[in-house]
Amino acid sequence: METYGCQMNKAESEAVSIVLIESGWEPVEDPAEAHIILLNTCSVRKTAEERVWGRLGALKGYKKRDVRIVLMGCMAERLKDKIFAKEPSVDLVVCNFDKKELPLLLERIQDQKPHVISNSHDHYDFLSIHENSGFKAFIPIMHGCNNFCTYCIVPHVRGREISRAPVSILNEIALLEKRGIKEITLLGQNVNSYCYDVNGVNLDFTGLLKLIISNIGGIHWVRFLTSHPKDFPKELIDIIATSQHLCKHIHLPVQHGSNRILEQMERKYSREDYLAIIEALKAKVPGVSITTDILIGFPGETQDDFDQTLDLMKTVEFDDAFMYRYNRIEGTKAYDMENQLEEKVKLQRLNEIIQIQRKIAGKKKKNKVGRVMKALIEGMSKHSDKELLARSEFDDMVIIPGDSADIGKMVTLKIGGLKGNTLLGEKICD
């Protein structure tokens, strides 16, 4: 199983793997040993699809023996049977609403000739468990999107928003807690638009958070991804400020700093709305870490629009940002918009915001030296078998001395210094 794209894909890959194992399949680490190779794909950006096409080309060699190649996820949903024309090595295309049917679909491609496409369901069903091991888990709580931002393919490949039953969410959390999970991340394409009818009463996202927090014991931390600024009420800020379980890190995509471009994107909030949320977060949640997504080079973006984005970045001072340039995706409104920018202009502007964000992030990291914070030790450092990688509740990645026996532990650490862009610390206590 190879996974591309967002955390939702990662969670669904884990869930599908569990389903396949329960059906008698055995996972292998090396594609050369596999009978089935599954690629869970992404369509959010053109580069994500290009990576998959390249990978399919590399996997052709395995077709010399009895191997089936399966494509699932958003790219599979978007292109469907067009995939077979471009890459005949693919045997099965699994659309987004059919992942539960994988064991049966795999039987079909074992017994019949290749080029099978699944497209039998029009309703998304949540799988019951999305983590099989480890000490961190992703938990999807809603699926799809109703926003139809003009640059985004997600509503077209994931469908309309559907919220998962709270009892199903609580049951999964209880099972994960028994397995020793320390941290959960609630997932959704627009996670804070969660809304579920319980006996005629709508349970919204803040209500769900309260329900989860009141029912967890051994799980230390709760995170959530990804929020939409138009669905970020004052009550949500209050819960983040007062709960010991909710991490003090918010990923809140702004996408752009110009009201004109935000309107063209159909984001349904203004620059001023966004800045008001940030001001309230900083006022009520001391030390809160705020990260974002920024999209540069949208059709018709002027120098003034771009300058407003730079100004917003300097005003907010994001701890980190995922920055990318606009790519045309067929099926979205923006694909047919006039005044498409030249690639060299988009790359130049993208490089400028990257440099600005690096300076801001560097300054913010320096200001964290000397701070004491809680962290979860996630694994060994890539550069030394005597160092560990820990993640704080503010989403800081910190290198500390230690060995593998500490992996999965919650610790209190102190930031002692900065080496390049890497925070260095030491454990004070468990």
Q: Gyration radius, to the nearest Å?
A: 22 Å
E-strand count: 20
Distance between the termini: 35 Å
* Main sheet: strands, sense, barrel: 5 strands, parallel
Sheet with the most strands: spatial strand order:
1-2-3-4-5
Shape: globular
The percent range for helix content is 25-40%
Structural class: alpha/beta
Strand fraction band? 15-25%
Q: Stretches where pLDDT falls below 50 for ≥5 residues?
A: none
Total number of helices: 13
Mean pLDDT: 93
Task: Please describe what this structure looks like.
The protein is of the alpha/beta class and 430 residues long. It has helices at 7-22, 46-59, 74-79, 82-86, 102-111, 154-158, 166-178, 205-215, 234-242, 259-265, 271-284, 303-316, 343-366, and strands at residues 2-3, 36-41, 68-73, 92-94, 116-118, 136-140, 142-143, 162-163, 183-187, 195-198, 201-204, 221-225, 249-251, 289-296, 320-325, 372-380, 387-392, 397-401, 410-419, 422-429. The strands form six sheets. A five-stranded parallel sheet has the order 1-2-3-4-5, sandwiched between helices. It is globular and about 60 Å long.
Task: Walk me through the topology.
Elements: E1 2-3, H1 7-22, E2 36-41, H2 46-59, E3 68-73, H3 74-79, H4 82-86, E4 92-94, H5 102-111, E5 116-118, E6 136-140, E7 142-143, H6 154-158, E8 162-163, H7 166-178, E9 183-187, E10 195-198, E11 201-204, H8 205-215, E12 221-225, H9 234-242, E13 249-251, H10 259-265, H11 271-284, E14 289-296, H12 303-316, E15 320-325, H13 343-366, E16 372-380, E17 387-392, E18 397-401, E19 410-419, E20 422-429
Parallel strand pairs: 1-2, 2-3, 3-4, 4-5, 6-9, 9-12, 13-14, 14-15, 18-20
Antiparallel strand pairs: 7-8, 10-11, 16-17, 16-19, 17-18, 19-20
Helix pairs in contact: 9-11, 12-13
